[in-house]
Amino acid sequence: MATDALIIIPTYKEADNIRNIITAIFGLPKQFDILVVDDNSPDETAAIVRELQTSYPNQLFLMERPGKMGLGTAYIAGFKWALQHQYQFVFEMDADFSHNPNDLIPLYEACRDNQAGMSIGSRYKKGVAIVNWPLGRLLMSYFASLYVRLITRMDIRDATAGFVCLSRTLLEKLDLDKIRMKGYGFQIEMKFKTWKLGFPIVEVPVIFINREIGTSKMSGGIFSEAFMGVIRMKISSLRRNYAKHISNRP
Ligand SMILES: Nc1nc2c(ncn2[C@@H]2O[C@H](COP(=O)(O)OP(=O)(O)OP(=O)(O)O)[C@@H](O)[C@H]2O)c(=O)[nH]1
Ligand SMILES: [Mg+2]
Predict the structure, then answer these.
(1) CA torsion through residues 229, 231, 234, 235, sign
(2) What residue spans define the domains of the chain?
(3) Ligand 1 centre from 249 Cα, in Å?
């Protein structure tokens, strides 16, 4: 480990994107390590990563899981790996170029300089910064964030963002085995618990671009998990000792 920062990229069928995203990140002026968590993609995404590992032996890591188990569990596995490997800042990022690699540096600086638990690459910090989403999807995402704000009272514009930097202190404090949701709900739950544990959260405006290559994994099940999950989470947060309950260092 020659750097303090690790990017976790979960992949399922990203053979057409993975090479480009990895080389774009390694081309940045700051050094980031990368951990790809692949769920046995049938398009051999992992084989491409393995081949690239020969060019970046100490910077590029691969975790292979036997089958598609969801984005949330891929990140939890990645977070545990990052903790074992002493990284101070850990990122969540998609493989499909919706998240611009150039935004990694401002996200890193925002997290570090504000002693934040989390910095968020936010699509709704300055108006609506989404390119090429159909109107229906945009409205759904925008109202999802509004819904989360209404139910939880947490002042975050982009509650479902999947482009974030997390500090090691947060990951050490948060009980990762108690994170329940797996899809978009996972993103909301991470933010809610970070907030409940009292960590500062900073939103950095970014522009999100719809995927141009590869296939989407959005589904109705993910939506309903998040919809009900937010209410369930809010209710359980009303109990006494909630912060203790969600942390592993009382
Ligand atoms: N390991 C793993 N990665 C996943 C899984 N589901 C999605 N991903 C990856 O998570 C990232 C985000 O998924 P996307 O399919 O881009 O989801 P999205 O951004 O909501 O939808 P689109 O961009 O429209 O496809 C991508 O890098 C996916 O390859 C999964 O079950 N396991
Ligand atoms: Mg995407």
Answers:
(1) negative
(2) 5-246
(3) 31
Ligand 1 within 6 A of CB of 10: yes
Q: Kindly state if the Cβ of 22 falls inside 6 Å of ligand 1.
A: no
Does ligand 1 have an atom closer than 6 angstroms to the CB of 92?
A: no
CATH 3.40.47.10 fits 5-246, yes or no: no
pLDDT band at 250 (very low <50, low <70, confident <90, very high): low
Task: Look up the pTM and report it.
Answer: 0.95
Per residue in 163-219, pLDDT tens? 999 999 999 999 999 999 988 899 999 999 999 999 999 999 999 999 989 877 766
Q: What are the pLDDT digits (tens) for 99-119?
A: 999 999 999 999 999 999 999
